[in-house]
Amino acid sequence: xxxxxxxxxxxxxxxxxxxxxxxxxxxxxxxxxxxxxxxxxxxxxxxxxxxxxxxxxxxxxxxxxxxxxxxxxxxxxxxxxxxxxxxxxxxxxxxxxxxxxxxxxxxxxxxxxxxxxxxxxxxxxxxxxxxxxxxxxxxxxxxxxxxxxxxxxxxxxxxxxxxxxxxxxxxxxxxxxxxxxxxxxxxxxxxxxxxxxxxxxxxxxxxxxxxxxxxxxxxxxxxxxxxxxxxxxxxxxxxxxxxxxxxxxxxxxxxxxxxxxxxxxxxxxxxxxxxxxxxxxxxxxxxxxxxxxxx
Length: 295
Ligand SMILES: Nc1ncnc2c1ncn2[C@@H]1O[C@H](COP(=O)(O)OP(=O)(O)OP(=O)(O)O)[C@@H](O)[C@H]1O
Description:
By secondary structure, the protein is α/β, with parallel strands linked by helices. It contains 11 helices and 13 strands. The protein has helices spanning 44-51, 73-79, 95-105, 110-123, 139-150, 169-184, 196-202, 220-228, 251-261, 278-281, 287-294, and strands at 4-15, 18-29, 33-37, 59-64, 67-68, 80-82, 157-161, 188-193, 205-210, 213-218, 230-235, 241-247, 270-274. α3 packs across α4. The radius of gyration is 20 Å and the shape is elongated. Adenosine-5'-triphosphate binds at residues 15, 20, 38, 40-46, 194. This is ATP-binding cassette domain-containing protein. Pfam families: ABC_tran (PF00005).
């Protein structure tokens, strides 16, 4: 088994009095396509910014590729690609010129940069557009170029912040295929999305961020079991649900799942078992996400 690509422990972040992340714990296995689901303002981008060293947490730790995001920033940066952040695409240049320029900035020779640009324009189906200025690109082409640019020098972990927001269905599916191909090459993909369907199609691990906490996590099948199975809810003294864990409801399964969590739980945590609905699980998600759920 590969080690975890990302390990987050008790991560907290506030902006002024607004507490955005309220003590996150999360592991992302190496080689996974991991989807972080959550409504607008849940803190998804904030978490990506912490993981990619752009901002520091107030408390807790995050390790990316084994490196601490505060104390070992440079090592983290060398292990990750971040779409649309480190690599600013210049609208006045063509797609190819952008790729060559970023290739040169990443230390490739002119010939290597040209070769890598050609490879990436083919991989991201931008052949026809490579010689056109980026300002003439559609939203889908622009996203594909962003992704290509971030992959000029391949890194083991790729962050994609809402990669398909605003894209039409066919562009979205084309981008999903490309993300799946990257995962086949062994890249760990950490993406955020507001679309449950997207997480379901792409990801092998999903976590739902709402009100500053991970309210549910697991494989897509486990999350779906939340709809039809039972849910163990762990509730803190403020009546907040701190964990929602899918279970068959049988005594052995409940016992095993509680035993796994027990060492990390404050003793005053209360346990309840309930029949879930999709609305319960994704209660904090946006209307858009809820529409996707009913498709
Ligand atoms: N630099 C900042 N200063 C003040 N508040 C901020 C800052 N960055 C984010 N926030 C606030 O933190 C909250 C979480 O924002 P964030 O962008 O992380 O959410 P998100 O889940 O990515 O949302 P979206 O889906 O809308 O992109 C929001 O209420 C936002 O207004």
